[in-house]
From TrEMBL:
Every Thioredoxin domain range: 26-178
PROSITE patterns: THIOREDOXIN_2
SUPFAM superfamilies in the cross-refs: Thioredoxin-like
The protein's name: Redoxin domain-containing protein
Length: 179
């Protein structure tokens, strides 16, 4: 792991220790670590991506796993968000990190992506590498990354259109889009 990755992980771990559940804007933006998976078989709906290639866009990372009902109950809101911001410099990247062995099987993940009608890129993180690089602990967790590749906000938990959390996330995204 690079020095930046270790620094990022240590900062997120310290945040996690300080707050049992953190949600909202970070006081100090942190550099987002580069995606850990670069092979074609680890990506769906896209060739392998890099955060560097996404510079100039606001990115929402969605850490999920397909048997997590909190995760898939958030998908209608994500679909609505993607439609609302379709003409903006915004993208969602799913990070599928499995909880159970059957969630590690590529064909099973593909079937669920089709079932849930996910059209955004999804990276399989079967070995929890990116999960650990981000210091993540929960499904689902949403990370907002600004146009310069820095994590600016973290939101944890099931999210529905119109909810307080959805409005906060959407507000943060719009602020980042206007920077």
């Amino acid at each position: 792991m690079s020095g930046i990755g270790r620094t990022f992980l240590l900062l997120l771990v310290s945040l996690s220790v300080s707050f049992s559940v953190y949600a909202g804007k970070l006081d100090t933006p942190l550099p987002a670590p580069e995606f850990s998976q670069t092979d074609v078989d680890s990506w769906f709906n896209s060739p392998p991506l890099s955060l560097k290639s996404l510079r100039g866009k606001v990115v929402m990372l969605d850490f999920w796993t397909f048997d997590c009902w909190n995760c898939y109950r958030s998908f209608p809101w994500i679909h609505e968000l993607e439609q609302t911001l379709a003409d903006e410099a915004f993208t969602v990247i799913g990070i599928h990190t499995p909880e159970f062995p059957h969630e590690r099987v590529r064909a099973n993940v593909k079937a669920k992506i089709d079932e849930f009608e996910l059209h955004h890129p999804v990276m399989m993180d079967n070995n929890f590498t990116y999960w650990q690089m981000m210091g993540n602990k929960f499904w689902p967790t949403f990370y907002l990354i600004d146009k310069q590749g820095r994590v600016r906000s973290i939101y944890i938990g099931e999210t529905h259109a119109g909810s307080t959390q959805a409005r906060a996330i959407e507000g943060d995204i719009r602020e980042l889009l206007h920077e």
